[in-house]
Task: structure prediction
Amino acid sequence: MNGFKIIKPEEITDNTFKLIGSDWMLITAGARDAYNMMTASWGGLGVLWNKNICWCVVRPQRHTYGFMEKADYFTLSFFGEEHRKALEVCGSKSGRDIDKAAVTGLTPIAGTIDGTTTFTQARLVIECRKIYFHDLDPAHFLDSGIEVNYPDKDYHRMYVGKIVNCLTK
Result:
């Protein structure tokens, strides 16, 4: 698939704090003919229920939310610094209003799993099957400072995905 090779999740060598928190990722849901992507810097990778998993969060008003709700699978795509501007656009503009791929120059391609989409420019792609979701509940915030992230009370939905494939270049 366009120069990608499949690796095991255990072979990812990136520092995940930098990978997600600083470098950012594109969360993409939907098949190549009907998808949306958004930039995210909140999420993680790990092991849960004896499965290699990732988790990400999406606010309900985001266009990607509807795609995440409909899809059984989603991808997390990671890029080099040369694509920072594209990630800025994908995090600040809505797919309801613009064709993000056309505006950013990112080239969407079908993932290895039917119904998934990623991008030729990605350097690392994690394909996931949704196995759990949970709506964040402010009543469970143990640190009152967390609430500052929600001035509009638009709490994220957390998605946990079982990692099905990792693709790298």
